Structure formats: C-alpha cells, structure tokens
Amino acid sequence: MSSVPMSHILFVSTALFFIGMYGLFTRRNMITMLMAIELILNSVNINFVVFNKYLYPDKLDGIFFVIFIITIAAAEAAVAIAIIINLYRSHRSIDVENATEMKY
After folding, report:
1. CATH no. for residue 23?
2. pLDDT of res. 103
3. Residue 15: pLDDT above 90?
4. Is residue 70 in some structural domain?
5. Residue 30 near residue 17, CB atoms below 8 Å
6. How far apart are CA 12 and CA 14, in angstroms?
7. Residue 68 covered by a domain
8. Which residues contact 97 (CB under 8 A, 6 or more apart)?
9. What is the torsional sign of CA 22, 25, 29, 30?
10. How much is the pTM?
C-alpha cells in the first residue's frame, strides 16, 4: 500500500483555499460567501492534518488544532446564519451590495 505524496495533498489544499478566496471576493450572496469561508477553513484543516501526519506522526498537535477549528467554524456558521436570517426578515435581501443601501 503506497502513501499519497505530501505535495499532492498540499496542491489540493491550495486549490481549495484559492477557490474559497475567489468565491469570497466575487460573490454577492451572503450564503455563498459563508460557504467560501468554510472552504478556506477546510483547506487549513487539511494542511494541519498533512503536516501532522508527515512531520510529526507520533504527536497529535495538528489534530487538536483541526478539532478546535471545526468547533469554531460550526459556531461561526450558526451565528452567521442567524444574522443572515435576521437581515433577510428585515430587508428582504441577503445581497451584500444592498447592505450599503440599508438604513437602520
């Protein structure tokens, strides 16, 4: 059984990161921007797991960081979705460009 080279996994992680950055900067919908942020966080998680596996296979430091990031991402998603629902109820739009026209 052969192992996947570290460079291949880092390439996939880098691709996920830049897809997330592209989605964050080009989308106007808050839901798709939230999904782009989740892609970025998942690419960071892949990096932590890969570096932990290849550089320090006896330690679990990278795994602890991944668990912490997953917890923070879940809390961030719950709060962001609550804010998006509240904005949609009050302004009938979740478009980011309409947010500059909103009067509070």
Report:
1. 1.10.287.3510
2. 57
3. yes
4. yes
5. no
6. 5
7. yes
8. 28
9. positive
10. 0.81
